[in-house]
Amino acid sequence: MIDLKQHPIIKQYIIWNRFGDLLGMDFEVESKGHVLYKMTVTNNHLATPFAAHGGSVAALIDAALGVACLTEVCEDLKVVSTVNLTISYLIPALKDDVLLADAQVIKSGKRILFVEGKITNQKGELVATASATMNAYPVSKISEKVF
């Protein structure tokens, strides 16, 4: 199996994803449809003196869910966008927490993908759970410069 993180579409996603850089996120592809995304909570993520803004936690899980789906469709020269995201926050993400988002595609169709994920902290505590619906479409709709 090819290392999907080296696929041209995923490599281009890494270049385009400036928001992920801003939040300090990075990912590994475990297998097709399964991604682990990591982010350390810094001062830039905080909504209070000690707790992360829910939007930064949502951004982490949305990225993980999206890239899990991207690994499913990139070999078909497609990319994905979020149609629906549902997140449940279980405990606060605190300053200096190392968050790990684990996302797995549960059903993949020609255009619609269903994906679920969870975020844990460095103690293994469940911080949030999420599910999403993603839309897959040809990469040529956003750029002809991928290949």
Summary?
The chain is of the alpha+beta class and 147 residues long.
Keywords:
147 residues, alpha+beta, Thiol Ester Dehydrase, Chain A, six-stranded antiparallel β-sheet, globular, Thioestr_dom, hydrolase
**Overall SS class:** alpha+beta
Number of helices: 3
The CATH C-level name is Alpha Beta
Helix content: 10-25%
Determine the CATH superfamily: Hotdog Thioesterase
User: How would you spell out the order of helices and strands?
Assistant: HHEEHEEEE
Number of domains: 1
The CATH architecture assignment turns out to be Roll
Please name the CATH topology. Thiol Ester Dehydrase, Chain A
Q: Give the averaged pLDDT, no decimals.
A: 95
Strand content: 35-45%
